[in-house]
Amino acid sequence: MGTIKQVIEGDYCIGCGVCPLLDSNLSIAMNDDGEYQAVRSEDTETSPADVVCPFANAALNEDILGKALFSKQQGIKHDDAIGYYLKTYVGYAISDGFRDRGSSGGMVSWVISQLFSSDKIDAVIHVKESSEQGLMYSYQVSRSIGEMEKGAKSKYYPIELSGVLEYVRTHDERFAIVGVPCFIKAIRQLETVNVTVASRIQYHIGLVCGHLKSTFFALSEAWEAGIPPQDVTLVDFRYKLPGCAASDYAIKAEGVVEGEKAEVIVPTRELSTTNWGYGYFKYNACEYCDDVLAETADITCGDAWLPGYDADSGGTNVVVVRSQEMLDIIDSKMDEVHLEEVPPEVIAQSQRSGLRHRREGLAYRLYLKDKKKEWRPTKRVQASDRIPYLRKKVYEYRMELSEQSFVAFREALKTTEGMKRFVQIMEPIVRKYRRVDNPLHRRLLRKMKTVSRKIQTKLNK
To answer: Where are the beta strands (DSSP E) in 294-390?
Structure first.
């Protein structure tokens, strides 16, 4: 098992904020790159919180935790891509406007509303707009459906749990928690050693995750939309555009321009930083995670990036149900949701790019670390360089894109050119990445297939 010291020194900390609950020597602070990180007040080799760090404790990986949590249920199955599951669905909420207010199908808000309505929880721990100066979003506690609804939609923004976990420690209530995979894993690890937290956090709702962003992501989006970084107050990352595909959404940035309050809506396709394949402003820890679908959560929801579903501007969820209690809730309220049961392969297909990056790509990144004889987290994926040359270059350029995005943004802040300077710095790396990610032979093959389909269509008329 690794240690938090190794995680911090190796830049593998995701800043989840779970460790301070077990070790007063640890705290969470935001670094100069706009990322939350664990900070040690004393340089100790080990910590009582080593067992809860999602990147240190290899003894409790997602397979082991999932088996302990879910494997004894009747009808449970396991899939290498999505973990344990009872049922897998594609669909959306049809009651009370949850879908309209959400980023996609509204299923997360609907599930939480059911927990409140059936008196299974007193509060939910989730991310909402922050009242703290200079901070857009933070983990907070909501005690009603009305309060919870203010936290709808995805927030591509750094968050941490230390404050809300202290609230859980001092309040004998029943909680649900919503989080990305590594956060839910850290909570599950905490629950193995802390009876108080285990008895109070009773439901775990997972979010499908691409990667966690630094504050630079929100600031860069708003800056390109016309609001300078120092004047940005809020960014809505998933503003739905009526009549457009679910994947064709916009941002809504709020702030001050020339002394006046401003609100700007810009489609993400017009912004330079929103291509998730580039991995701009990504936590380095995300490059060493192999869980895309929150495998330790009772239920996981995400975007259905699938043909036939992603064209619906209302948004559609993929849903993985792992606990019988969550399945019973859905079964009892099927009139409030529109869900189609699908094979687990469909769920995996909806996240195929992320899964490939976290499995094949991770194997290569681990190999590179081992080659340098550097410590790195122990993962379920084994280190390997047995992948095609072009795929190796894809992963190498992605790492470079992520690392250099921080450098380029800080450089842009120093100039009068703003985000134009950022684009200038990043463009040469983007060009190299595009050449290997979309090589000439692949483009020609797609072109030939398109021409062939057109010819076949004419012949059939």
So the answer is: 299-303, 317-321, 337-341
Sign of the four-CA dihedral 53, 56, 60, 61 = positive
Amino acid present at 205: I
Structure tokens at 282: 């990504």
CA distance 30 to 255: 22
Cβ(194)–Cβ(21) below 8 Å: yes
CA distances to 99, 153, 177, 270, 329 from 332, rounded to whole Å, are: 19, 25, 22, 43, 5
Of all helices (H) and strands (E), which one includes residue 255? strand 250-257
pLDDT tens-digit series, residues 271-319: 999 999 999 999 999 999 999 999 999 999 999 999 888 778 788 999 9
pLDDT of residue 311: 79
Alpha-helical runs (H) found in 194-260: 195-200, 215-225
Residue 259 and residue 396: Cα distance in Å, rounded? 43
At residue 149, does pLDDT exceed 80? yes
The contacts of residue 53 (CB under 8 Å, 6+ apart) are: 2, 4, 7, 18, 19, 186, 189
Judge if pTM exceeds 0.70: yes
What gap in Å lies between CA 229 and CA 97, rounded to an integer? Answer: 33
Nearest CA among 11, 79, 152, 16 for reference residue 344:
79
Helices (H) and strands (E) in the chain, counts: 15, 15
**Rounded distance between C-alpha atoms, residue 101 and residue 237, angstroms:** 13
Tens of pLDDT, residues 62-76: 999 999 999 999 999
